[in-house]
Amino acid sequence: MLVRSRMAQRLITVAPDTPIADALALSRKHRIRHLPVVQGERLVGLVTDRDIRLAIPPMWADEHEELQAALRTRTVQEVMTRELITAHPDMPIEEAGKLLYKHKIGSLPVVTGDALVGILTESDVLRAFVDLFGVNQPSSRIEVRMENRPGELARVVRVIGIEHRVNITGLVLAPTKEEYSIAIMHLQTVNPTGIIDALRRLGYTIGWPSLEIEAYGPIDSSDGHSPTRGVVSSWPE
After folding, report:
1. CA dist 86 to 4, 44, 72, 112, 204, Å?
2. Model-level pTM?
3. What is the sign of the dihedral through the CA atoms of 158, 159, 161 and 164?
4. For 123-146, how does the pLDDT look when each residue is reduced to its tens digit (9 = 90+)?
């Protein structure tokens, strides 16, 4: 999955000489927090709702007229970020997520050369990861503990897909420091017990829905909240 498949392409932008008041009005109207700053098609900066808040002196916070006057006279170029972390349309989505996490930022302008072609936010990346996990459709979740050696994952997949004819809608390998891997799978079935039994007979340790529950026991439900063991997930769009 590449950035181009998840980035917003219908962009709301401002120019460097746009009054801060206008930028604030745009962000509120369109319910966005990041406004690329462009000259022509060239990206020159980024202004966020946080930048605008920091531009408001505390002594004006309760002085409406003085605040509005200041926001009309000051421009975006006074508060925008000029040194930007950017992405390319053909960057893998996980690399974009790594940039957001590493630099603690909320969005990545997407550029080809100096030209702005899109913007990718942390919400876009989170939604992509949710889709990759396969939880946007009815499924059952299991975790399979297997040794770190060639062929183990293929063996597990064969049991699920060939022997039981069940689709895997999402599969992620969780990193560990041990000599084994944990495959987190979403299966297109409401009852994975036959698959679980078959994998256990082959020597695999199975968590349903999680190995953490198998290790530590279910959550105490005395407060009225039940653990999610075996629950079928069905997340609405």
Report:
1. 13, 12, 29, 10, 43
2. 0.74
3. positive
4. 999 999 888 877 777 888 999 999
| Matching residue, tokens 């940039």 | 99
- Distance (Å, whole) CA 74 – CA 82: 17
Residue 56 has which token pair?
């408001």
DSSP-derived 3-state class of residue 161: helix
- Delineate the domains of the chain, giving CATH numbers in brackets: 3-129 (3.10.580.10), 136-216 (3.30.2130.10)
- Rounded distance between C-alpha atoms, residue 161 and residue 141, angstroms: 15
pLDDT in tens, 22-78: 998 899 999 999 999 999 889 999 999 888 878 776 545 555 666 666 667 789 999
For residue 75, what are the β-bridge partners?
Answer: 19
